[in-house]
Amino acid sequence: MASSAEPAPDAQESARSLTLERCLEVLRDAKNDSEQFAALLLVTKAVRASDVDAKTRRRIFNAVGFTFPNRLLVSQETPAGCSEHIYRALGLTLLACFCTDPDLAGHPQVFNKIQILNETIVSDCEVNNLPLSSMIDDAYQCLNGVLATSKGPTQLVRNGTLPCLSKVYLHHSYGWHQAMDLLARLLTTAGDKCWKKCKSDLVKVLSRLSKDFQKAEDASKFKLCEILPRFLPPSPLLMESWGVECLKSIYQGLASILSSKLSESQRNPAFQLAGCLANDYNADWILAESRVKGSKFLALLVNLTCVEVRLSLEEPDPSYADSRQELITACYAAMELGLQECTREETLLMEAQKLQLIAILQEACGAIMYYLNQVGWQRMEDPFTFASVRLLSAWLAEETSALKQEVCELLPFLIQYARTRFKLGAACRDLPRQVAKLALCSSTWGSLWPGDALRFLLPALCHLTAEERPRRILIAEGAPALLFEYFQHLWDMFALDEQSSEEVSLQTACGIFLNLVVTAPDLIRQELCFSSLMTLLLTSLPTLLQKKEHLVLTANVATLGLMMARLLSNSQDLGDAAVVKAFFRAAILFLRQAHVSEMNRGSEKLTIAVSGSYKAAWGDISELWFLGMQAFASCVPLLTWLPQEVLESRWIQDILELLGSVSPASVDLELVSAFQGILKEQAEKSPACKELILSQGGAEKSNLYGMAALEQCLSEDKPC
């Protein structure tokens, strides 16, 4: 007996097209609502019967438009014998069809249906209620279409979709898997807005997710591991009481995964979740658990991520690393956390753990250098290269004695990479500055603005410029000129927003320039960029000094300016007398305000002390202050007008009055030496200053404090 054959695919498609053509023809010829309704039923059946391409979808829309579906969605009446949802179901089917077209999904007529879509997805639906479940599916299709548009995420947040999605998930109502997926995508696109507007709903969802993650013992644990990073709130919300509970659950869930023998596909999502937490919350999320357990977990996490990085980057074929970039980037965040904990004074790690982690971090950073030497020059544009340079910079900022040969070999690449990214970033500098939150598996991990590799390299360069061989390489590669360009850029940004993060980078850059001033003085006299730097310092200090909240930066600028002034005193860089004198007046003010006399507790004697306005920052600026005192003293014989400026400032009187009022035992030898340097140089170069010092009891004080050089200078039989 002959069997009946299925129609060929082409024949099926032809039949469907013919059916749809007839439906559209009926729809165009409909004379009233009843006929149009009947025609629409035919169209929706045809739509459901096949995948509609963009051209056909647009033809359906042209035939139907928004007007009639709008009426269907809000109609309260239903034809006799029909389902109570028949009109809305038909309207939703058409809207779902339209929303697969990005242009239509972003139409205001779709946006104003969002609340209807919200109402639909929270409907009570039994498993076997096919008409209602079909409506809910159509509503999710519409919401997904809206979310994919440029204005869609904002519209969904504004129109209350997030609470509805949260309700569906928390009650595990029909479509909760779709609700979870939509929530995750919405948070990825507009996380800050979502948390700002719907915090209470998201708190409930994250609490549920974290508890489920902690308790799960099946494959759902790994699925939750992939989803959780999208639900982490902007820092520091998780430090609130509810968040600490979530962190404990997440920590325990991660600990159970990473301490088990699992396949690569099971372990990798755990690395990515840990990387997100490390980036946003440092070690706080680990400390949510006990300190002992936390230290063991951190050591385990850093060990595993370092091994993963080595396995990925030491492969001779770079394509293997290319396939694992997102994973390695998450490992980098965990490794940086390990670096921070190894170098902090108050850390949760024990000494043995630190030594072990430093060794394995060194091996992993060696693998990063191998990778960058292998492919870095060809992949300047690759975001993964940026992430690799960032992690390596963090390691170099703490460790420059290890892998010396490899570091020196890589320096030309690092400088050229930093230069390339800085130039490419120029186009972005006119845009509003935004600090990007680490998105899940984002390879732009931690960048402040596109191209800012130098920000991460600065601390490493501060160490490397103090060493001869790396310094020679850096100078040969043109690093000083690049650093000045960057310094100028940072200064411009700081001038626009003094609360910005540029201040720390400016301080670090000053440290690099100070290293060059001390170790390569001829370079300062020869390189044009230092002439421009000197001008910037001269003009900036007087204004900066007035802002007490920026005292550390002030100390850096003043000291660097004084150190450079010694070298450039005969050049045109100090040609504008008014500007130069204003700088030195500001420098005098900075130096003279550092110390005061105060009553010692339990004694009637006055002692010398750091002034109140300097006390909080003294740990950061004391070395700069002493260096500044030495540099100022060195400038006195080089600038003939400087002693007169000192006289007019009454600084000499201040020093001598201070020394005369306090107990000599309270003044340490380093401070005595600093004061002696200033007084001696003034007395040597200016008879008026010498006379003033003598009239203020300088000879007696120099003897009392053991200032032998000053005492000799002031001696009548041994003129200066």
UniProtKB/TrEMBL annotation:
InterPro entries: Neurochondrin
Name this polypeptide is given: Neurochondrin
Any one biological process term the GO annotation gives: neuron projection development
PANTHER family reported for this sequence: NEUROCHONDRIN
A GO cellular-component term linked to this record: dendrite
Species for this entry: Geotrypetes seraphini
Family statement: Belongs to the neurochondrin family.
Lineage: Eukaryota, Metazoa, Chordata, Craniata, Vertebrata
